[in-house]
Amino acid sequence: MLHRISPWWWVLGAILGLRLLGMTWLPLADTSEPRYAEIARLMATTGDWITPWFAPGIPFWGKPPLAFWSEAISFKLLGINELAARLPSWLATLGTLALIHIYARSFFGGRIARWSLLVYSTCALVYIVAGAVLTDPFLALATTWAMVAFAMATQQPKCQWRYGFFVALAAGLLAKGPLVLVLVAGPLIPWLAWRPSARESFKKLPWLSGLALMVALSMPWYVLAELKTPGFLDYFLVGEHFLRFVDSGWAGDLYGSAHEEIKGTIWIHVLIASFPWGVVALTMLLRRLIDPARRRSLGQALQDPDKTYLLAWALFTPVLFTFAGNILWTYVLPALAAFSILTAIALAEWQEKSSYGRRSLYALASLTPLVVTGYVVLFTVQPQWLKTEKQLVAYAVRHMQPGEKLVFLGSTPFSATFYSRGQARSITNEDLAVESSRATTLYLAVPKDEFDQVSKSFNTPLTKVFESRQHVLTVIPHHESDS
Q1: pLDDT at site 200
Q2: Contact of 482 with 427, CB cutoff 8 Å
Q3: Measuring CA to CA, which of 104, 164, 302, 362 is 20 to 30 A from 49?
Q4: What is the structure's pLDDT at 210?
Q5: Integer CA distances (angstroms), 187 to 4, 43, 58, 183, 205, in order
């Protein structure tokens, strides 16, 4: 029976399998991955499933808990390691792929559905975040689920789609917050206004009971989170969802810094996030606009309600963030499911023309997986080039005796906190003089550009015992003291 399996599924399996292997090898690199992994680790070890903790005693108000719940459960089942931390994102991406296939097959046929999977899974952003500890794959899953359920409820008004729409919104509220409501209502409202005949889709949903279900699934956590750490709702709803959007230099971020960009930069991010398919799609669009015959076919496509549904879905997210200066390229992710189906429709016409077209598309599909796999292999072989403290921590833990301490001069990188299971600590220059005079051996990690200066402050120059990309590890025996 194996010979009957379409080559498409072998290719897709190889793409996803490569990502699964790669995410088990590559250490967590600062800053986002180990930061989120550490939050999930604390949730798993403390048993606090209400408040994500940025560090012991410091609540993390920046994101809802769905991703952290998933990662904490994964830690419980698989142990605390890279695979367990990243597997939930990979599974969320699989869920999104399944929804894309269901929708595309129902509305455009099996061939378009298969091309859609190939395009989506090999977009640069999708392939990268599928194996990364981030919250974005969960938002993409929720958004895709809601948009697919809305459309499928018209074609197949079954309970799983009619109520699935509201369950998806609840998942989005627990994955990223009220942003999911904007990303779903944003494309639906103009599409329904443009296509009055499509308003039957709106009427097929059980709005009263569905919204009650959404509230019942998502709101209890918001209430419990505010009761447990008062101030959460103000920071999360006002700060993260309003001030971050309108103020590109928002200084209220408690956990990092604003990602200030020139307004309109989101469109550059679109091309990068959708690589290589964004460039292909843009080229095909320009050719259609230049050629009168093809331009007419483009006009006909704009009369198709199914294609305009995808167009509204694909364009709303980048249009929304065109007016924001505080952005990241991951913001593009919720739009890429619709983009992939639209691109697949156009690519299917090209593929029909010749076998050379098919070979070219397979070559394009291999670009991102090969580049990312090469990156993984490179940094697996040369981990000291990666921005991670995994090897430094492992060296220190291997040589430390009970009672000895691992400290980082200045701030402790998130990767050091995660890999030391929260044991690595920060130390200031002032405290170093006190700590080094006590009867405790210190394993001291010093930023590379400060090592020589710190070494001179001791009677005996410090010896480098290990080096990572950013730090030098040295040992200060308890009998040494500050000069």
Answers
A1: 75
A2: no
A3: 164
A4: 97
A5: 39, 36, 37, 7, 17
Taking alpha carbons only, the member of 338, 312, 307, 404 closest to residue 148 is 338
- Positions of the chain with pLDDT lower than 50, given as ranges: 1-2, 480-483
Query: Look-up: residue for tokens 């609540």?
Result: 59
Tokens 């929708």 label which residue? 103
Contacts of 157 (CB under 8 A, 6+ apart): 204
Residue with tokens 């903790």, as numbered in its chain: 53
Residue 98 and residue 27 in contact, taking contact as beta carbons nearer than 8 Å: no
Q: Which two tokens stand for residue 26?
A: 């590559």
Asked if 102 and 148 touch (Cβ cutoff 8 Å), the reply is yes
Integer Cα distance of 106 and 310 in angstroms: 14
CA distance 193 to 199: 8
Going by C-beta distance under 8 Å and a sequence separation of 6 or more, which residues neighbour residue 176? 63, 64, 135, 136, 138, 139, 142
- pLDDT value of residue 419: 97
Question: Using an 8 Å Cβ cutoff, are 184 and 169 in contact?
Answer: yes
CB 168, CB 215: distance < 8 Å? no
**Contact assessment for residue 180 and residue 131, using Cβ atoms and an 8 Å cutoff:** no
Residue 181, Cα to own-chain centre: how many angstroms?
19
Its pTM stands at 0.93
Q: What is the pLDDT of residue 250?
A: 57
SS (H, E, C) the chain: CHHHCCHHHHHHHHHHHHHHHHHHHCCCCCCHHHHHHHHHHHHHHHCCCCCCEEECCEECCCCCCHHHHHHHHHHHHHCCCHHHHHHHHHHHHHHHHHHHHHHHHHHHCHHHHHHHHHHHHHCHHHHHHCCCCCCHHHHHHHHHHHHHHHHHHHHCCCHHHHCHHHHHHHHHHHHCCCHHHHHHHHHHHHHHHHCHHHHHHHHCCCHHHHHHHHHHHHHHHHHHHHHHCCCHHHHHHHHHHHHHHHCCCCCCCCCCCCCECCCCCHHHHHHHHCCCHHHHHHHHHHHHHHCHHHHHHHHHHCCCHHHHHHHHHHHHHHHHHHCCCECCHHHHHHHHHHHHHHHHHHHHHHHHHCHHHHHHHHHHHHHHHHHHHHHHHHHHHCHHHCCCCHHHHHHHHHHCCCCCEEEEECCCCHHHHHHCCCCCEEECHHHHHHHCCCCCCEEEEEEHHHHHHHHHCECCCCCCCEECCCEEEEEECCCCCEC
* Tokens describing residue 374: 């090469």
Degrees to nearest 5, angle at CA 412 with 406 and 413:
115
pLDDT tens digits, 237-276: 887 777 676 665 555 566 666 566 788 899 999 999 999 9
Compute the Cα dihedral for 359, 137, 145, 303 and give only its sign.
Answer: negative
